[in-house]
Amino acid sequence: MLSEGESCMAKKLVLPGIRIYGTNIRVLKPEKLALLQPGQLRKFISDTDGTFSTLREGWEGIMGPLMVEMIIGGAEIDDALRNRIEQDVARYIFESTGINTILQMAHLVEMIKEYGLVPADKTLDDQGYKAEYNRRLMVPVGNRISRLANNSLKLTDVTMYGALQFVRLASKSVDIHVFSGTDDEDVRKELAAIGIAPHVKSIHGALREYKDSNKEMVLRKLMAEFGLSGLQVAVIGDGKVELQVGAEAGCITIGIASDEVLGHGWNLKKVERLAPYADLLISDFRYHHAIMRLLKLA
Fold it and tell me: Cβ of 113: how many Cβ atoms within 10 Å?
């Protein structure tokens, strides 16, 4: 099996930023990190799916076909149109990773109207499509949780490499809060299943109304509640959305550009998606001690 370094060389992998020697940490904005004072960071506000947890790995492979199926309905179309629909869907999913599921389903409603292949009386609203997506997604997720409970899967099979160690270590120095575009009840259940829930101070999953639970709102609410300025908060995630809102608020941003199938190693699509907004990029949490030192918390 190739090491991370050998794999990178084999693929002629060129990563942005400055590599911290002996680690998988890439520093993209050293001038911003240089402003950090020892112990200045007080909160980590983190995504969970694809960041700590891989229970939902493969969600794109469920959402994509669902969207294509609902846009086409039972219409007879040629290969060119099908390909265009599939490309539009793939592009949207890539750009929207990290936002609340209900917004993705609201966009699906608009795509269905735009393509006009399905009669209005045969379409659902955003909540209807979300219910169907969740029904399909929870089949593999529920299976993984059951297998975790009966010990046919290990925690390391459903978490990002080093995530548990990172959370345990970090929680000794800072408070960790979780925000997610996944429904609140499901986030809580899944964080409990992978052993992370006891180490976080609060969990903010998606509520029925987007205005009550989006990531920007949660971040700004937590910062206001605790009287925090940007460099006192680190935002962590594998989605463009959380890193963008973190960067706009002046927070330290840590992008997790990892291969969710393996639970470790670089995912180049995520690198592309996160690099414009990340101060740090990592492929997993194996060098958790080095991350803490870089953030001047150890």
Answer: 12
Q: What is the dihedral of CA 242, 245, 248, 253, to 10 degrees?
A: -20
Please work out, in degrees rounded to the nearest 5, the angle formed at the alpha carbon of residue 203 by the alpha carbons of 99 and 175. Answer: 115
Name residue 254's beta-bridge partners: 236, 280
Extract the tokens encoding 5.
Answer: 């370094």
Residue indicated by tokens 């795509």: 111
Q: In angstroms, rounded to a whole number, what is the distance separating the alpha carbons of residues 70 and 48? A: 28
**Domains of the chain, residue spans:** 4-54+159-294, 60-149
Q: What is the mean pLDDT of residues 180-193?
A: 94
What does the block give as tokens for 238? 């594998």
Structure tokens at 137: 């997604």
Each residue's pLDDT tens digit, 95-149:
898 888 999 999 999 999 999 999 999 999 999 999 999 999 999 999 999 999 9
Helix (H, G, I), strand (E, B) or coil at 214: coil
Helix residue ranges per DSSP H, 116-264: 126-149, 163-170, 184-193, 215-225, 240-248
* Domain 4-54+159-294 CATH superfamily: HAD superfamily/HAD-like (3.40.50.1000)
Average pLDDT of the chain? 93
Interior/surface letters 274-298, b for 16+ CB within 10 angstroms, e for the rest = bbebbbbbbbbbbbbebbbebbebe
Measured between its terminal Cα atoms, the distance across the chain in Å is 33
Amino acid identity for residue 171 in this structure: S
Q: Phi then psi for 125, rounded to 5 degrees?
A: -90, 180
CA gap 151, 222 in Å, rounded:
37
